[in-house]
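Long-time lurker. I teach an intro course on protein structure, and each term I like to show students one example going from raw sequence to a predicted 3D structure in token notation. This year I'd like something fresh instead of my usual example. Would anyone be willing to generate the tokens for the chain below so I can use it in lecture? Attribution to the forum is fine with me.
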Amino acid sequence: MKRIIIIALAVILVLSVAVWAFAASNAGSQDDPLVTVSYLNDKFKADLVKEFEAKITAQGAELAAKIDEKLGAASGGSTSQADAFYLVTLSAGQTLRCDVGTEVLLREGAFTVSGAAVTDTTSGSAVAVGSTAANNHMFVAAAGSGFTLGGASGTVLVRGTYTIV
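-- Reply from a regular --
Happy to contribute to a lecture. Here you go:
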């Protein structure tokens, strides 16, 4: 009789340990949807940041390649031409229309932004259409942007593709 009780207790103990081990091995698994704050902070957040940085790096490289391609095409494939600034003189009412990425340094004259907003890289701000553009500031053109001369004559330094209208 004692032997049966000891065997029964041993079986119960083995089954208890097995159930506890099974429960411990499945805690926090895909079958157990319980999410802890430490998991979110330590694992999920770190993985999310890594994935975000990888996508940003890939898109940045893709964008840089497209910009280099466009600049090469705009300069006829010659980097020396794209690196040079050209002095352009405008008459009253003329507009300097710029392609994307064209750099313009306004030297003399009263110019207003036309077509689309431009970026004033000297002050680090955007200049809206119809606003006066400051002389001796460097601007980077967006698609369809330009500068219209309001005074008698004006001069600009231009690096990139442009047309005078």
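Some talking points for your students: The longest helix spans residues 37-74. The CA atoms of residues 26 and 51 lie 27 Å apart.
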